[in-house]
Amino acid sequence: MNTITLTLPPSLHERAKALAERDHISLDQFVALAVAEKLSALMTEDYLKARAGRGDRARFEQALAKVPDVEPAPEDRPGP
């Protein structure tokens, strides 16, 4: 494990500390989880952008053309 020094505004520190206590975890663990969550979100965004860049409109339209043009089943229709 690596150690970092983190400076937080007092209000943010107190809120983070209170939430950590509520979840019965240390403030260090709370901050580590918050960083992991943010990294996951950013990495997912990068992954989705890369996937979108590989998209091909013509192939999409070919796949869509194979879908039958029928009314949806009653259970698939939106409610009132």
Which series of helices and strands comes N to C?
A: HHH
Which value, in Å, is the CA radius of gyration?
Answer: 23 Å
First-last Cα distance: 55 Å
Strand percent estimate: under 5%
Helix content: 55-70%
Q: Shape, please?
A: elongated
The residue-averaged pLDDT reads 94
Unreliable parts: none
Number of strands: 0
Instruction: Specify the structural class.
Output: mainly alpha
Main sheet characteristics: none
Count of runs of 4 or more consecutive helical residues: 3
Please provide a brief summary of the model.
By secondary structure, the chain is mainly α. It has helices spanning 10-22, 27-53, 57-65.
Can you offer a commentary on this structure?
By secondary structure, the protein is mainly alpha-helical. The chain has a domain at 27-66. It contains 3 helices and no strands. It has helices at 10-22, 27-53, 57-65. Helix 1 (10-22) packs across helix 2 (27-53). The radius of gyration is 23 Å and the shape is elongated. The N and C termini lie far apart (55 Å).
